[in-house]
Write a structure and sequence with these properties.
Helices cover 36% and strands 21% of the residues. It has 212 residues and is of the alpha/beta class. It folds into two domains: 167 residues, Isopropylmalate Dehydrogenase; 36 residues, no CATH class. The chain has a seven-stranded mixed beta sheet with strand order 6-5-7-2-1-8-9, with helices on both faces. It has a two-stranded antiparallel ribbon with strand order 3-4. Helix 4 links the parallel strand 5 and strand 6. Helix 3 packs parallel to helix 4 and helix 5 runs parallel beside helix 6. The two termini are 23 Å apart.
């Protein structure tokens, strides 16, 4: 998409999604005020995929079998999940700096490090390390599946949430649902030098030329 291309080409590594409940907006919740800080350039969204049956997919499946001893079905498509120390560190630092700048009290890192020990495990290790530099801000981490349940049950316990790309995408839409939907959820894609702002509901291209 054009949006993803802009994020990658301009290195807009931080997607900031405020989810705040405003007066007059219908919601079963009260006083929700959460900010999702989503890493914007890594994870499964880097778009490195190998289609089923291609020579590249076949070669990668062979490599996995030879190096890891794991069997991957030969009719599989594959996607690469990439989490770097550099990308993790800068997004977690961004989240803590945001929290400090806006007098937020807590940062929650979400992950699935119990299963994805090297990719999400790296993100979690970096988050814990960076958190030590901000003793004035409370830090916690949660498994992403537990996080979705807690957001539905008790969203007011969360303040700033930092996440890898995929989890941040999913959880930010969930949080938008808590405060009225995507129509009232703004978004910012921020880098060190540039920023691009957007409504998170997108541009509705299916209505082009219909005067709706």
């Amino acid at each position: 998409s054009v949006n993803v291309a802009l994020r990658k080409s301009l290195d807009l590594y931080a997607c900031v999604r405020p989810c705040k409940l405003y007066p007059g907006v219908l919601s079963p919740y009260k006083d929700v005020d959460i900010v999702i800080i989503r890493e914007n350039t890594e994870d499964l969204y880097i778009g490195i995929e190998f289609e089923k049956g291609t020579p590249e997919a076949t070669e990668l499946i062979k490599l996995i079998a030879e190096t890891k001893g794991d069997t991957v079905r030969t009719d599989s498509s594959l996607s690469i999940k990439m989490i770097s120390e550099t990308g993790s560190r800068r997004i977690v630092k961004f989240a803590f700096e945001y929290a400090r700048a806006y007098q937020r009290k807590k940062v929650t890192a979400i992950h699935k490090a119990n299963i994805l020990k090297f990719s999400d495990g790296l993100f979690l290790a970096v988050a814990r390390e960076v958190a030590k530099e901000y003793p004035d801000i409370e830090f916690e981490d949660r498994l992403v599946d537990n996080m979705t349940m807690q957001l539905v049950k008790r969203p007011r316990q969360f303040d700033v949430v930092v996440a890898p790309n995929l989890y941040g995408d999913i959880v930010s839409d969930l949080c938008a649902g808590l405060v009225g939907g995507l129509g009232v959820a703004p978004g910012a894609n921020i880098g060190d030098e540039l920023a691009v702002f957007e409504p998170t509901h997108g541009s509705a291209p299916k209505y082009t030329g219909q005067n709706k």
